[in-house]
């Protein structure tokens, strides 16, 4: 079951990233976008909690001349917990500066 | 300029549809998703107003056994107005039952 | 490690679904779209094999008056195998008619 | 009609960008991804021609430690021509270095 729970949390993080990357974002709508993303994750099977954050510092660095930018892997952070038949597993998504990659990993 | 305004409103509707189709949606988060989508459109250049609606009747028909579904073209409705150098143009997105297609068109 | 492998295969299926749902598809480009989707999955860490199929019967049923439609969960099928430190795990994505849901599951 | 043609080409560019941004890409699959994106645009109403290019230099700069990256606005280029009742209009998508923005514009 631990394995199934790990599978399920992987689905949620992969889904979150690829559904929302590219969405127009600025300091104005970052919070509502975070809430909407969390609400989407919470609907999916086995999810116990979901926390999605858009890194405001990274966001500011990326703003275009039109004062917004596309949501990307450098600014998106998430933590999702699922429970499958009593087994709880948590996964996180966070930009890895060294690998230059939006790394997803299981945490304990 | 009318032409440029029409081009710009086309961009917004095409972007909206392809960014958010597939997002997990239910009666629980439809409203926050609508607000988030509107906030994304409002950030884009030349947009004066944006109204996004998820058709609740269609949504109910599509709910899976997990009590949510993927946002699709049958339930997504939008109206976006742009203004480019004084020229205002409005475009709408609405499911066309006959063509079975999420039709986007200019309105006057 | 079995757990990590299961997590990784979950990421790939969630990513595939949410990246490509909504893409314009018809009998004309279904094959190139399948190949492109497979090529995207194959780039991701730990993937050993990826098979993506668009169900042609479902596709035909969904064609709009413009002779194409949006790729959706009813027609998308996939099988992805990952290997993490010797542990191999396979996951599949397939429409579940009863649940009306694009179900992802581990197989043995 | 010029206006409608401009609207239609806007739809195609907005759709292309927001459908495919985030897709895994490397030097290995850039060509098949270009072909798949072109095939998707070609299915849409009124499209006469579609050319999609992934800038290989930009792509190389963005590669992660896993030797691929997410397709983004800095590397995606497109040119789409539509014809509506005899009126032809062409739109392009290209990264604007100064505005740090994936600019879409009509060309003559």
UniProtKB/TrEMBL annotation, chains A, B, C, D:
Summarize subunit and interaction data from the UniProt record for this chain: Homotetramer.
Recorded GO molecular functions are: dihydroneopterin aldolase activity
Pathway the protein acts in: Cofactor biosynthesis; 5,6,7,8-tetrahydromethanopterin biosynthesis
The text of the family note is:
Belongs to the archaeal dihydroneopterin aldolase family.
Q: What is the catalytic activity of this protein?
A: 7,8-dihydroneopterin = 6-hydroxymethyl-7,8-dihydropterin + glycolaldehyde
* Organism classification: Archaea, Methanobacteriati, Methanobacteriota, Archaeoglobi, Archaeoglobales
Protein name (database record):
Dihydroneopterin aldolase
* Binding of substrate, residues: 8, 104
Enumerate the Pfam families for this protein: DHNA
List its EC numbers: 4.1.2.25
The species this protein belongs to is Geoglobus ahangari
Q: In its keyword annotation, does this UniProt entry include Lyase?
A: yes
What is the name of the gene encoding this protein?
A: mptD
């Amino acid at each position: 079951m631990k394995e199934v729970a790990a599978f399920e949390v992987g689905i949620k993080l992969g889904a979150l990233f690829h559904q929302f990357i590219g969405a127009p974002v600025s300091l104005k709508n970052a919070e509502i976008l975070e809430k909407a993303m969390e609400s989407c994750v919470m609907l999916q099977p086995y999810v116990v909690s979901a926390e999605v954050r858009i890194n405001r510092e990274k966001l500011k660095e990326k703003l275009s001349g039109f004062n917004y930018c596309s949501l990307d892997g450098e600014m998106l952070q998430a933590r999702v917990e699922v429970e499958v038949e009593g087994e709880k597993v948590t996964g996180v998504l966070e930009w890895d500066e060294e690998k230059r990659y939006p790394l997803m990993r299981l945490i304990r």
